[in-house]
Design brief:
This protein is an alpha+beta fold. It has one domain. It is built from one helix and five strands, in the order βαββββ. The protein has a five-stranded mixed beta sheet, covered by helices on one side. A hairpin with a 4-residue loop joins strand 4 and strand 5.
């Protein structure tokens, strides 16, 4: 599972996060063990993976399968 955070935006709801993710907007990969940590990533790069989205200034999260 990977962790994604908003890129240049913060969200107030899960629906907003999923709408932008499904529209192909970029999120930031948050994985200190990856060489791509801190880099933008989108739905095109994540098919078939479980994703933990963090939003609302990192106070909320949910898990989604791409």
């Amino acid at each position: 599972m990977i962790i994604l955070q908003p890129y240049l935006k913060d969200y107030k709801s899960k629906a907003e996060v999923l709408a932008d993710f499904n529209a192909g907007k970029d999120f930031i990969l948050n994985d200190m063990n990856s060489r791509w940590d801190g880099k933008p990533i989108s739905i095109r790069d994540l098919e078939g993976l479980k994703i933990e989205f963090r939003y609302a200034k990192d106070r909320k999260f949910f898990i989604h399968e791409a």
